[in-house]
Write a structure and sequence with these properties.
Helix content: 25-40%
Number of domains: 2
Radius of gyration: 23 Å
Structural class: alpha+beta
Number of helices: 16
Strand content: 15-25%
Number of strands: 20
CATH class of the largest domain: Alpha Beta
CATH architecture of the largest domain: 3-Layer(aba) Sandwich
Largest sheet: 5 strands, mixed
Distance between the termini: 31 Å
Shape: globular
Strand order of the largest sheet: 14-11-15-10-16
């Protein structure tokens, strides 16, 4: 993360601090004699934006009010879930006490001994309000390293005036009725067709010794399907925001993305916005289920925090039901707390249903073994090759085997 100067106003004094994207300070109202605590908290800028209701500041202030025994000064920094984890792993002693991270960064944090384990009453609370699948996304060797606050995956948005609920069950049916956009050259998305046809990554996703199996007839069939898909006149490759732009101008009737684009899609489609977990697709006359990569986003605690008790308590609060509800209402961040998901207004939200249906039924947990880093570029190159027509039916087998070989190589040996 780039370091930069940020200026903080405390009373009428201006204090210049050198920090990783710091954006503000705040002190709680505390009883006399209470323990003085300073917590640095990092989050994406949207969580601190006035336009989004200053979710982070509001939640931290609420937390402070619930703990008058601590006189807390909060220092806020801007870092998204990927950047924060990388920074904490690289230099934990200079990083935030509490931060948000995507679960695919977890091994870099644990390898650096930079993230704290959750145990005792806090672990029990987290485990009692989250699904086993979600908890697994934040465990290494059975230890829990974060408080989940949302699932992280992608699914399908569509125009209900074009597609019926029956239509959206199968991608090929949809392509007969309207234009579908898909991030074909994005290696977070394209594996959906390979995984759905039986390809695997590191066994169950955790056994690095088993490697990647994107080989053989099952993988070649997926490549051939992708070639035909790209050639379909009702299919458009989504790149650089073209899918969303197409929804706005009417040239696209369905696209694949996540909750981060939900508000913009709602503006484009209005009451015609439909949202669904992933459809099936048809290979050699057989229906197969598209499978997305899925993970989670979590609140983590720096293992080097000077104020460990308070940092852990804050992390659990920021990932708790009240904070998740506020996150949902302020920023459409889809909750994952199992008690919250039972509440009528949340349970009835199609966006919530689609994201959680996808996580539970039409996805695999994205592997976070180290060798997963070898998989992104070869798949991206396959998508680009199909787009550029250098990958064809004639050389599909050869190109697929080359992709598989590259996914099982670190580029050195």
């Amino acid at each position: 993360m780039k370091r930069r100067l940020a200026t903080f106003l405390t009373g009428i004094m201006t204090v210049a601090l050198v920090a990783a994207g710091l954006t503000g300070c705040g002190s709680s109202t505390a009883d006399k004699g209470s323990e003085k605590v300073r917590l640095m908290v990092w989050s994406p800028s949207e969580d601190q934006s006035k336009d989004s209701g200053e979710w982070l500041q509001t939640m931290c202030n609420n937390f402070a009010k619930e703990h008058p025994e601590w006189d807390i000064t909060f220092v806020y920094g801007v870092a998204d879930e990927a950047t924060a984890a990388d920074q904490v792993a690289q230099d934990p002693e200079a990083s935030a006490d509490v931060f948000m991270y995507a679960n695919d960064r977890i091994t870099s944090l644990t390898d650096a001994d930079a993230v704290a384990k959750f145990g005792g009453k806090y672990k029990e609370e987290i485990e009692s309000t989250n699904s086993e699948e979600l908890l697994d996304s934040l465990k290494v060797d059975g230890e829990l390293y974060g408080v989940p606050f949302t699932t992280n995956t992608w699914y399908m948005f569509y125009d209900k005036s074009v597609f019926s609920e029956e239509d959206v069950k199968n991608l090929d049916t949809m392509l007969q009725k309207g234009t579908v956009s898909f991030p074909f050259t994005n290696s977070w998305y394209l594996p959906a067709f390979y995984l759905g046809n039986g390809c695997t990554l590191f066994g169950d996703g955790t056994d690095e010794s088993k490697g990647v199996d994107f080989a053989g007839e099952k993988a070649v069939d997926a490549t051939n399907y992708a070639i035909d898909l790209a050639a379909n006149p009702n299919f458009k490759i989504d790149a650089d925001g073209s899918g969303l732009a197409g929804l706005r101008d009417g040239s696209v009737k369905a696209m694949f993305t996540g909750s981060w684009d939900a508000n913009a899609i709602k503006e484009a489609l209005g009451d015609n916005m439909g949202v669904s977990s992933l459809p099936t697709y048809t290979i050699n006359g057989q229906e197969k289920q598209m499978l997305a990569y899925a993970g989670s986003k979590a609140i983590g605690v720096n293992a080097h925090s000077e104020y460990m008790e308070q940092a852990v308590a804050l992390a659990v609060y920021l990932g708790g039901s009240d904070a998740q509800r506020a996150h949902y209402e302020m920023r459409t961040v889809i909750p994952c707390n199992t008690e919250l998901l039972k509440e009528k207004d949340i349970a009835s939200d199609p966006l919530v249903r689609a994201q959680n249906d996808t996580f539970n039924n039409t996805s695999i947990l994205q592997p976070f073994v180290a060798s997963m880093s070898n998989c992104w570029t070869p798949v991206e190159n396959m998508g680009k090759g199909i787009r550029n027509k250098s990958v064809t039916h004639e050389n599909a087998k050869e190109q697929t085997e080359e992709m598989n070989e590259a996914m099982n190589s670190n580029g050195i040996n």
